[in-house]
Amino acid sequence: MSPYAHIAGWGMYAPARVLSNQDLEHMVDTTDEWIRSRTGIVERRIAGEKESTATMAVEAARRALARAHLSPRQLDAIIVATISPDHLTPATACLVQAALGADKAAAFDVSAGCSGFIYALSLAQMGITAGEWHSVLIIGAETLSRFVNWEDRNTCVLFGDGAGALVLTASDQPGGVLACVLGADGSGADLLVIPAGGSRMPASPATLEQHAHTIHMDGRAVFRFATHILPEAVEQVMRKAGLPLTAIDMVIPHQANMRIIEAARKKLRLPEEAFFVNLYRYGNTSAASIPIALCEVADHGLINDGSLVVLVGFGAGLTWGAAVVRWGVALPQPARPWWQRALYIARLAFGRLPAFLRRLLYRLWQALPSRRDEE
Ligand code: COA
Prior knowledge:
The protein has a single domain (4-326), classed as Thiolase/Chalcone synthase (Peroxisomal Thiolase, Chain A, domain 1), CATH 3.40.47.10. The protein contains 14 helices and 13 strands. The chain is 38% helix and 22% strand.
């Protein structure tokens, strides 16, 4: 058993297309001023036609694996947190697994709204500290632009697309994920919901006409819940870790609304620089928002080895979750000769080849005349 789950790699992907508040002014009855002052959002990214939650997840995952110097074949599990999966079934994580060629990894999705990434992180930590898994890839990825009603100004100005990934590995060195708390209150299930497309309201011409496959939200009620639960979850997880609030170096909150973040910061009496905010560039990317923000924090050198980082999310369900991480890349990276590095990059780039060949062989086998005769 390894007592610690460390973050060994991180990576993010944001689609190229930018949709600004000014663009939205031409689409619905809104203004840049309203969106900025009520949410803090200035622009968001929108996935291209050929992109999906899985393709963006794969891009983020490749970057995280490269940083961790880990081959996809070393992964024991892949967990994708999303509310905008490629399909109802199979899990988006299975598509990611095939694309990476991570053929030894279990793969499944977590649906816990915007808290999904914290749920995935907690599961990965449990699997690692229990000794079941050594290396786990967790990804938060969303294509919310496909689930938004672009005629509803109450919701369409809020959301964006993107993906962020972390690689966690087992280590005997103290640090990594120190504590997690998770919570839910299903009595608020109707406050943030995509009503149709599931077993309760299957797709039909009527559901399409009613825009019932898009996000419906009671913004004010979610706002009240968020401003209360965000500081509460931070306090809870710090208590669980046995650390005072003053030990926090950086809080990375779910990037939903600047006013929610500001209210929480004041309640916790933490300085402005202790809260990372990038929602003005990406909007609310649901389960992807925390890992995207964490990647930017790490890439910009805003945290160092030993920094105490708190990740905190809240969202549909209603759900919430928080995690305390002692930052610091745990694993000493061996120096590799050039050809090993080239082989590694080729493996990452052509990871989907084995799955492709297996599918091809299977189809050829099915098409054999002798097989058809048998059936
Ligand atoms: N542009 C212009 N006006 C808008 C608008 C838009 N994009 N969206 C809503 N409005 C209008 C409303 O229709 C309302 O008009 P009315 O008073 O004539 O009915 C008015 O603005 C105020 O609406 P209100 O709901 O009080 O605004 P608010 O200050 O609560 O801000 C949200 C709205 C959605 C930004 C805010 O409630 C919020 O952020 N909630 C949490 C949402 C969230 O984070 N969800 C994801 C959780 S993971």
